[in-house]
Design goal:
Length: 235
């Protein structure tokens, strides 16, 4: 794939559409080989070239933003992941409409990014919209609709647990992590689907850390939320 990219650059030029997608395919291969940092650099390059040629409002930008957002999610960077996924959501709304399956899928991805930042109430809004679209398009018995509803229930549970903890009604520190709802294997499958290529086995190791490290991460997020709440009370 790397040789193909080099050949495309020399024969077609770095600003050719096929060269841009050579960057994308090499990024996807790199991500599946657990070289996510390299994959992100390739995707940033592809996004820059596409924007240079076609502008920011080209529909392909949405696919590139989803690629980058999911790769950032793999690295645990939920905030920047959310930013790129929201950009993709905006473009799909513009080209496909709010009731489209594409918009519903982006809503699900944004909800997961928000959940990674412990913003469960906001995540519920995006997930609920996706559930409504899936229910209308596929019916309530479809697996996609049921999976969407299951994650919505999980977000609701997490939001209640967090609210109780903030109000000191519950002394037990709630488990803030919901990353298991979007494991790395699923991310690789989503990347393949978004880019229209067959899914390949991924060598990415699970990004779930040791139990002590995971607990520390959750505690840091809880403390940050608690401090924000205390500040608002003082204001």
């Amino acid at each position: 794939q790397k040789q193909g990219l080099l050949a495309s650059e020399r024969v077609l030029g770095i600003d050719h559409y096929e060269t841009i997608y050579c960057y994308v395919y090499l990024a996807l291969f790199s991500h599946n080989l657990a070289q996510t940092s390299i994959a992100l650099r390739l995707m940033y390059r592809a996004k820059y070239l596409l924007q240079l040629i076609f502008g920011q409002d080209h529909l392909e930008q949405a696919a590139f933003d989803i690629n980058i957002g999911l790769m950032l999610h793999t690295k645990g960077d939920s905030k920047n992941s959310q930013r790129f996924l929201e950009s993709a959501l905006k473009l799909h709304k513009k080209f496909h409409g709010t009731g489209s399956v594409q918009v519903a899928m982006c809503n699900i991805l944004v909800a997961r990014a928000l959940a990674g930042n412990a913003d469960f109430r906001e995540a519920m809004k995006y997930q609920k919209h996706a559930f409504e679209v899936y229910s209308e398009k596929y019916g309530e018995e479809d697996k996609r609709t049921k999976d969407c509803q299951a994650f919505l229930s999980k977000l609701t549970q997490k939001a209640v647990e967090l609210q109780k903890w903030l109000q000191n009604k519950e002394k037990t520190v709630p488990n803030m992590l919901v990353n298991e709802a979007l494991p790395d294997t699923t991310i690789s499958e989503m990347l393949a689907t978004v880019n229209g290529i067959p899914a390949t086995p991924s060598k990415i190791k699970s990004n779930v850390t040791k139990e002590s490290e995971t607990k520390n991460e959750a505690d840091e997020k809880l403390e940050e939320i608690k401090q924000q709440g205390d500040k608002e009370d003082l204001d």
